[in-house]
Amino acid sequence: MKILALSSGYPPYHGGGYEIRVKQILDALSLRGHAIRVLTNRPDGPPQQKSEWASYPVVRKLHNHEAVSSFFQELAIDLQDT
Q1: Beta bridge partners of 4
Q2: What's the mean per-residue pLDDT of the chain?
Q3: Which long-range contacts (CB under 8 A, 24 or more apart) does 40-44 make?
Q4: What phi-psi label fits residue 17: left (phi over 0), alpha (psi between -120 and 50 degrees) or beta?
Q5: CB 54 within 8 A of CB 26
Q6: Over the stretch 49-66, which tens digit does the pLDDT of each residue have?
Q7: Listing from the earlier edge strand, what are the strands of the sheet with 2-6?
Q8: Which of 13, 21, 67, 72 has its CA 20 to 30 A from that of 31?
Q9: Cβ atoms of 37 and 4 closer than 8 Å
Q10: Does pTM surpass 0.90?
C-alpha cells in the first residue's frame, strides 16, 4: 500500500505529543512493507534536538504558519501549498 502523510514539524524535535505518535505509526507501517512518503513544512531554523532519520522520503515543501497574522494570509499560504 502507498501512504502519503501530511504532518507539521516532521520528524518531531521534541519528546512527546501527536507528532511523536505519527512518526511511530509511519515507522511501523514502513517496517511492514508499505511505501510511505511524508509531506511536511520547511524547518524554521536549526532543530532543538537531532531527529532520527526515516527510512522513507520526507518532502519539506509546506509553509510554516507561525508568522501568519490574519485568516486571509493563512488562506493564501494554504492555496500556495495545495
Answers
A1: 37
A2: 81
A3: 40/6, 40/7, 40/8, 40/9, 40/10, 41/8, 41/9
A4: left
A5: yes
A6: 445 577 888 888 888 877
A7: 2-6, 35-41, 58-62
A8: 13
A9: yes
A10: no
Rounded average pLDDT over 1-28: 82
d(CA 13, CA 81): 23
Closest residue by Cα to residue 66 from 5, 7, 8: 8
Euclidean distance between CA atoms 11 and 52, whole angstroms: 7
Residue 3 grid coordinates: 501512504
Which three cell numbers, joined as nine digits, stand for 41? 513544512
Give pLDDT, residue 28: 95
